[in-house]
Amino acid sequence: MRGGKLASRVVPWLETRRAWIHTSEGSREAKDGVLRNAAGDLAVPLAAIFD
User: 43 with 34: CB under 8 angstroms?
Assistant: First the structure.
């Protein structure tokens, strides 16, 4: 996929400011707006990523 085509697909997704957590059990949306690691000792608010 060329850069322009990729950007046309990624930019609208980024504008939603949504994220998903993927584990061996499956995927779920980070509804509380925070991405966490499996150990629970790292948490990154989506606002910190997008701002």
Answer: yes
